Amino acid sequence: MLKLVLLGPPGSGKGTHAAQLSQLTGAAHISTGDLLRAEVDAGTELGRRVAGYQVAGELVPDSVILAVALPLVEAAAAGSGYVLDGFPRSLRQAQTLDERVPAAARADQIVLLVVPEAELVTRMLVRAGREHRPDDTTEIFGRRLSVYEAETRPVIDYYREQGLLREVDAVGDLDEVTGRIRAALEL
Ligand code: AMP
User: Fold this and answer.
1) CA distance 120 to 94
2) Whose alpha carbon is nearest atom 2 of ligand 1?
3) Which of ligand 1's atoms lies nearest the C-alpha of 10?
4) What is the 182 CA–ligand 1 centroid distance (Å)?
5) CB–CB of 171/116 below 8 Å?
6) Global pTM?
7) Residue-level pLDDT at 16
8) Cβ(9)–Cβ(57) below 8 Å
9) Residue 143 CB less than 6 A away from ligand 1
10) Helix (H) or strand (E) holding 8
11) Model confidence over 70-125: pLDDT tens digits?
12) In this predicted model, what pLDDT tens digit does every residue of 127-182 receive, in sequence order?
């Protein structure tokens, strides 16, 4: 059963590849960004609490994210597995995930999508024309990249120290990158 964390900077293709892997294996695709955007669009109380962080490119507080994500991870681990996309995104989230879910539910594969920064900006501009996300502007995207470096780099190091991290070159056409990810996961 796949229990995978897909890591990578904004614009590295996590959403696309997580969706593909979910289709391929039947594992649940858990995207905290998509979940929160749906709450914002639906105008729920949670949506109103997180909207300001999202549009500014800042991380939503760990306590809010953990309350949303942990039950989903546990449920998916009891079902057909999961691909985490955009979570965990801070060291506290990663540590809490390990502490709070039963050992059998913990992620056992971590893949980091590696894309140079200049390419990320180009991809964001393409996505901006297609998806109209309020945080896909040059200024906010720059902020998201800085937040990634400051908050999510430590997550990469955390998994690297555990010997779980595999890095995949995510530049190239979609099928090529898919092939590299599948090879890394032996799927
Ligand atoms: P994404 O769609 O993964 O790029 O996420 C978009 C935005 O949602 C981020 O810039 C954050 O504001 C928020 N977000 C998504 N996932 C998390 C998370 N795990 N921790 C904190 N904020 C998050």
Assistant:
1) 24
2) 33
3) 4
4) 25
5) yes
6) 0.97
7) 97
8) no
9) no
10) none
11) 999 999 999 999 999 999 999 999 999 999 999 999 999 999 999 999 999 999 99
12) 999 999 999 999 999 999 999 999 999 999 999 999 999 999 999 999 999 999 99
- Which bin fits 8, alpha (ψ -120 to 50), beta or left (φ > 0)? left
DSSP character string of 112-170: EEE--HHHHHHHHHHHHHHH--TT-SHHHHHHHHHHIIIIIHHHHHHHHHTT-EEEEE-
Say what the pLDDT of residue 97 is: 97
Structure tokens at 76: 């998916």
The whole-angstrom separation of Cα 168 and Cα 14 is 12
b/e for 75-111, b at 16 or more Cβ within 10 A?
Answer: ebbeeebbbbbbbbbbbbbbebbeeebeeebbbebbb
Residue with tokens 């990320």: 120
**141 CA from centroid of ligand 1 (Å):** 12
Ligand 1 pocket, residue 13 CB under 6 Å: no
| Degrees to nearest 5, angle at CA 27 with 87 and 12 | 45
Closest atom of ligand 1 relative to the 69 alpha carbon? 19
pLDDT at 164: 94
